[in-house]
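dumping this here before i forget
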Amino acid sequence: MAALVGSLIVLALPTVLGKAVDAVVAQDSTGRWVLVACGLIALGVACDLVEVLAGTACVAGTTAWLRHRLVRQVLTSGPSGTRGFDTGDLVSRVSGNATDAAQAGPAAVTAVAAAIPPIGSLVLLFLIDPWLAAAFLAGTAAVVVVLWAFTRRTAEISLAYQQTQGRIAAALTEALAGIRTIVAAGTAEREERRILRLLPQLHQHGLLTWQMLARSGAQAAVIGPLVLISVLAVGGVQLVNGRITAGEYFAAVQYAVIGAGLGSLTGVLGELARARGGIARAAEVTALQPVGYGTLPLPEGPGRLALDGVTVLAGKKVLLDDVRLDLPGGAAVAVVGPSGAGKSVLAAVAGRLWDPDKGQVLLDGVPLHALSKTALRTAVKCAFERPALVGSTVGDAISVGPLQPVRLLASARATHAHDFVSRMPDGYGTPLAKAPMSGGEAQRLGLARAWTAKRLLILDDATSSLDTATEMQISETLMGDRRRRTRLIVTHRVATAARADLVVWLEKGRVRAVGAHHDLWCRSEYREVFG
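structure:
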């Protein structure tokens, strides 16, 4: 509204000043018109202030809203939904591109408001004299062509610039995740070159943007004065011939100045182009499909896990191929196989972190996708080889949801995490940032977090970093679980497989065999799995 009123004031002011000039020529009182002009100027200043404040608030509010939306979309899409994005690229979209996209609203308002005065000037010039309108239209049409070409080309360059930024961010995030390996290998300089190898390309995109801005600005700067000169010339002829008054001539000159200023829109249109690129990159994230849940509760049962013709694809590669399993409830099931056999994919499918392309997974006879979110995530929990510890304190990293001290302590004791947490300065209240841990200690916290599973506990190589003694203790706790949950344990250790009730042997995404460890041990191929 402020921008609209401001544009109308810009249109009204030349006419009011023109009336004042005519009053001077006619030797009438000019006080009324001067007061009206002063009032319009004061109102215009107020509108400009409101527009700046409202535009800033709009950008800030929209950025916050969009970041919330993008973060929620990323988290609700799960691992399978975000698999096609690099972590750094996603961060770039949520942080930088969200701000670019948020500029769209104010930039669009500014562009529309800036377009109203030239259009209105054309109409008012036509009312003063059609020939003035014709002279004005010839010049502004050329400016419009320049602006259109600038906007179209700048939108392409801005999107390419943002995409390159995202790739640099992805490379940096990847390097930060492996910083220990980089330092140990002495390859810091090589990694620096790898991360920054796209800088010349980024520089080129930025340079093209400035070249486009400079070229369009120069073209508009040349055309603008030509518009003014043509209106001055035509208006002068009409004034000499008595077809317009001095005040109308003055107003016509002011309207020509407004039309000549149309070229200054390159900055606003540049913002719109960047916003368009930001919107396109944000839209790719908002298009992600969140994980859908059903409404069914989980009936009473022992935790029987069944995979019925499960096939998982990654592009053209088959990760799991028509897997059929019927695992008894309450059993400890070890999943073994060589690297690339599909063990982690099987664990992800069983925990519904990855929906199969064909077939279905059932827990106590109910398909996982038909369960409500609460029922599924209460019944099934997972622990991983490299757990991501989230929360502000060590206790937060173990507890899921509201902190329950009794359950927290029980989970920590069962997984032997209490042994080292109790020695920290503030115990479970120790901030995670001030709690340096070994890989094995982090794994124990991850195990403790998953320990509250009601029906199915999935461990994806979640004890690989533990020392032999601790692994033995946790393994005994797992195998002798008095809560009789089904335990699906991805492992490379022969001792863990030997203690399990049942072993699932995978090879190239297929089930090679299912049986007791001692029965499979007589086969040389099975023994080779453990080296």
